[in-house]
Structure formats: C-alpha cells, structure tokens
C-alpha cells in the first residue's frame, strides 16, 4: 500500500440490515437525522457520502422502510449547506430521467457545495418502470449516451464565459457559450445548459463494479462477498483507472461484549442477512486485521462502508475503528482538499471545445 485509503459512506436509510429501523426513530425524509449523520461522517474525515435511491414503493413496506428513499439530489442540496468538505454522491437512474434536467441539477449541487458533487448511474427494476410513461427497453448503450450528453452540456459553457463586466454591461460572453446539438439513439438535446460550468468541470462519476458505466467511472464500489471474488473482479474494476473502494458493513466496538449484544439483538429479529459483501464484527484491532488482506495484499484503493444500523454503528466506526486504521497508517488524519475530485486525486477535466480565450 503506497497511499492513504479513500473513505466513502453509503447511507441506505437507517442501515443495511433489514431490521435497522427497529433501532432508530428513522423517517426517510428526516432532514435533521441526515444532517447529523453527514456531520458525523465529516468528523470522521469520510471523503464522500453516497445516497442510494428508489423510484417505487417496496413490496416489503409493511415490515420496514428498506427501499424507501428521499430524493437524493434534493436531500444532498440541503446537506451541502450543513457540511464543508465531504463529497456528496447521488444515485441517478438514466433510463428514467432526462439528461438536461439532471445535468443542471448536478451542476447546481456542484456550485452550491463548492465542488463536492458526484453521481452514480444505477439500473432500474420492472416495478420502477411501471411508474413512468417513458419505459424504454433496457439498453446497455443508454447510460453511455446519457453520460456523453451530461459532459457535453457541462462543457457548453467555457470556464470564463461569465464575465460580470458591470461597466460594459456584459454578464456573459455569449461567444463562450454554445449549443451542443446532440442527436443520438436515445436523446435529442440542443443545449446549451442554463447554468455555468460546474466548479469541478465535470461532476464526479461513481459506479458499482457491476453497474452502468463501471468501465468509465472515476470511483468504483467493489461489492464482493469474499477476497477471492474481489480478486477476480478487481482488474476489470480498475480498467478505467478508477479508484476502487471495497464494500463492507462493520460492527465495531472497543467492548467485545457490546459487539456480541448487538449481534444477538439483530439475529433475534429473524431472517438471514446476506448483503453481498463482507460483514465484519469485532473490536477495532480485530476488524483492522480482517481488513489487512484487502488493503495490504489485494491493494484496494479505499473502503466503502455501509453501516448495518447507522445510529448504533457509525459513531463507533468514527470514534474507534477509524483511529485504529489511522494508527496503522492507512488513513490521513485530515482532509487534503476541498472538492470531491481533490479528495480522490482526480484531475479537473479541461473543456476541449471551449478552451480559455
């Protein structure tokens, strides 16, 4: 391992465990709860926070809020006002949205957060398609074209287009703003965008390792159940030069008895919990030892932590586990940048169509 690890927090409502809601007074649109979690994650120096999404009420609604989701871009806009450094990544469904609208909303979030916005394209379910008039057949090419349109719209403004020359009465140099005139298989978009180019140039693209646009993402979440499975898919996850973060749920406490109590309480609700990634439980040194093969041998670039029960587990992750990882030299002690691109060591893309005058 030659560099410090990157840290992302995935926030699936009250937690990844199906009974997480029983441990908290969770409401899917409780802004104060989300603000508290975001500030706690920022105190732990997480580089980013990812909000999943759903566009259909879950069939299991009677038994818990899993799958209920507040609209992530709206929520992240509010979280931007209460945080200063943590990156803010929203799940987006390209198949069920229009690129012009999403380009402007992501650009707005990037401006409002001073360069901390990211997006993660996701696949959709048949149940979600039933809620939309536009229900195209699933097509692997659609996310690629969607991403192409987003980038073209962000580049429809030169970085220096906004002049604000009050004596001359010139707000925008219209020669530095252009239409994109995109005509593709799935989208026809004239442009230009109605908001200046984002502070990051292009909003950061994240992806699940087996999800849309994984081959061109800046950040990839590797969701593997064990080390051999992760080793098998890691080369493909890295093919775009992405920062690859392995996904884990962690139940950490300095007290072994406390860990056992939590495990027993959650098992008592019945049903097997198999999230598709490792669930690590123990004291901070024990968990660090379990992570060591992933970090030191496999060489993942970071950790994507998905708390089983956010209200019970995240505080102990921040207060006990992360200091242990810092003591081992795996994590920086403070932020080294102010933008999401900066956190992940990503260059700001130049606008090749409208280079500086």
TrEMBL record:
Signal peptide annotation: none
Residue span, Luciferase-like domain: 30-265
Top EC class for this record: oxidoreductase
Top-rank lineage group of the source organism: Bacteria
InterPro entries for this protein: Diverse_substr_monoxygenases, Luciferase-like_dom, Luciferase-like_sf, NTA_MOA
Keywords: Flavoprotein, FMN, Monooxygenase, Oxidoreductase
One term of GO molecular function: nitrilotriacetate monooxygenase activity
Presence of keyword tRNA processing: no
Coiled coil (UniProt feature): none
Binding residue positions for FMN: 53
Keyword Nuclease: no
EC number: 1.14.14.10
Entry-linked PANTHER family: ALKANESULFONATE MONOOXYGENASE-RELATED, C2H2 FINGER DOMAIN TRANSCRIPTION FACTOR (EUROFUNG)-RELATED
Similarity-based family: Belongs to the NtaA/SnaA/DszA monooxygenase family.
Name of the protein in its database record: Nitrilotriacetate monooxygenase component A
Species in which this protein is naturally found: Achromobacter veterisilvae
């Amino acid at each position: 391992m030659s560099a410090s690890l990157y840290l992302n927090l995935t926030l699936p409502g009250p937690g990844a465990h199906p009974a997480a809601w029983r441990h908290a007074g969770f409401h899917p649109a409780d802004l104060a709860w989300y603000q508290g979690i975001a500030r706690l994650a920022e105190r732990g120096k997480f580089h980013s926070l990812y909000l999943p999404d759903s566009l259909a009420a879950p069939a299991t609604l009677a038994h818990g809020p899993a799958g209920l989701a507040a609209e992530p871009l709206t929520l992240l806009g509010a979280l931007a006002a209460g945080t200063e450094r943590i990156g803010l990544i929203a799940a987006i469904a390209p198949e069920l949205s229009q690129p012009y609208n999403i380009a402007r909303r992501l650009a707005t979030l990037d401006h409002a957060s001073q360069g901390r916005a990211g997006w993660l394209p996701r696949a959709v379910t048949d149940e979600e398609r039933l809620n939309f008039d536009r229900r195209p057949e699933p097509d692997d090419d659609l996310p690629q074209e969607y991403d192409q349109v987003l980038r073209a719209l962000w580049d429809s403004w030169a970085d220096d287009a906004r002049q604000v020359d009050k004596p001359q009465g010139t707000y925008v140099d219209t020669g530095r703003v252009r239409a994109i005139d995109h005509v593709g298989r799935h989208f026809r978009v004239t442009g230009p965008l109605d908001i200046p180019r984002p502070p990051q140039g292009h909003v950061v693209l994240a992806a699940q390792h087996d999800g849309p646009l994984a081959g061109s993402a800046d950040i990839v979440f590797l969701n593997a159940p064990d080390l051999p499975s992760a080793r098998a898919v890691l080369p493909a996850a890295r093919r775009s030069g992405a920062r690859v973060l392995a996904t884990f749920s962690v139940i950490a406490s300095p007290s072994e008895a406390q860990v056992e109590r939590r495990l027993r309480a959650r098992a008592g609700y019945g049903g097997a919990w198999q999230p598709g990634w490792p669930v690590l439980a123990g004291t901070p040194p024990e968990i660090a030892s379990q992570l060591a093969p992933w970090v030191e041998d496999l060489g993942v670039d970071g950790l994507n932590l998905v708390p089983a029960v956010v209200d019970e587990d995240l505080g102990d992750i921040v207060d006990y586990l992360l200091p242990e990882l810092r003591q081992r030299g795996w994590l920086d002690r403070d932020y080294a940048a102010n933008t999401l691109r900066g956190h992940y060591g990503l260059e700001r893309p130049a606008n090749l169509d409208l280079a500086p005058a």
